[in-house]
Amino acid sequence: MSTYTFEDLKKDVAEGRIDTVLACQVDMQGRLMGKRFQAEYFVESAYKETHSCNYLLATDMEMETVSGYKATSWEKGYGDYTMKPDLSTLRRIPWLEGTALVLCDMLDHATHAEVPHSPRAILKKQVARLEAMGMKAFMATELEFFLFDQTYDEARLSGYRDLKLVSGYNEDYHIFQTTKEEDVMRAIRKGLQGAGIPVENSKGEASAGQEEINVRYADALSMADRHVIIKNGCKEIAWSKGKAITFLAKWHYNAAGSSSHIHQSLWSADGKTPLFFDEKGQYGMSDTMKHYMAGLLSHASEITYFLAPYINSYKRFMAGTFAPTKAIWSKDNRTAGYRLCGDGTKGIRVECRVGGSDLNPYLAMAALLAAGIDGIEKKMELEPAFTGDAYGAQGVREIPRTLRAATETLKDSAMLRAAFGDHVVDHYVRAAEWEQEEYDRRITDWEVARGFERA
């Protein structure tokens, strides 16, 4: 929740500091879509509602009008949804002159009920389930990305070949190399802080040109809201400085993947009592935490699509790269898919290391919460912690290796169908199927180089 209020906005508009308001919805890919309002009109009228075409929740990355969705189609005429600004998300955007931003909930145009397959509604439903149990989820997402010393247009016009990274060597925790990148990274930290997103730090990551930005944890919905603004802001700030950023999960064979690890814990409804902590429990884990983690592991394959939604996402899961290949848990072990952090303290939490930087945070968090809630409701027993190198472990639960495999487990998930609804699961199954269909009919550079002469 932002501390910038609608009254603050009205004052800024009246005194000429804000002239544009971005009213944004979040699409299936986790991108911001919406309109730029003249600020005077927004504070007079549009703060109540505006509208957008309902195809925005039924397209792919290319904005293709994909067939096979029940929610909307050419046959149904691609009508409107209502965009209802959530004024608690209102904030100034310091890196855009005279600009404020607000996130919107998506409502049915006729009934004004929330659109069930909209990402924000999916997460809100799981948050409400927790509230009914007297619990509140707090989460934090760690975002990694690669920074390039050229513009998006330059990269595109080159066919994304011969891309020039901002550095030439592994810069994990490297101060001197990241000093050379401070022009961009300082602007990102200051910009996000000024937008009401409390920043903890930035750092170099495990490959040349790889960065990480960390912000303070928050309740699940606020964290997801922050996440999408962070990604959009990082791109806009880099673009303004003649640079480009990619959140591809695996941009190059020789480079590490980019993740979005999700730290999660449950607290009392007032946010004061940590429900994952029991000083008498193993590692300080409460029974609630054990049940929650057992749910994550039990449903690990079913929720993978929401952590890895694209063909490219699965190229990241490689042994020896700090990206997991096994859906097991371990104490402070970065080779496992689920890592216990903060053991023995009130800050005890589980870090899901499966998700890539390309995930939609609302969908990923909702899937994790749904799995954890199922574990709590069924009092699932947590398996023993794994010790050692998980990459070499035999006979343990593996992360699905392809989008095709993850799609099948999503389709067959009784847990997610009960938590999200059949319509929602079917909607995202169709999104996954389309992504696979599009890839299956494409010819890659690798295929041509491998077989042009020798096939």
TrEMBL record:
Keywords: Ligase. It comes from Peteryoungia desertarenae. Belongs to the glutamine synthetase family. SMART domains: Gln-synt_C (SM01230). Its cofactor is Mg(2+). Residues 119-455 form the GS catalytic domain. It comes from the Bacteria. This is Glutamine synthetase.
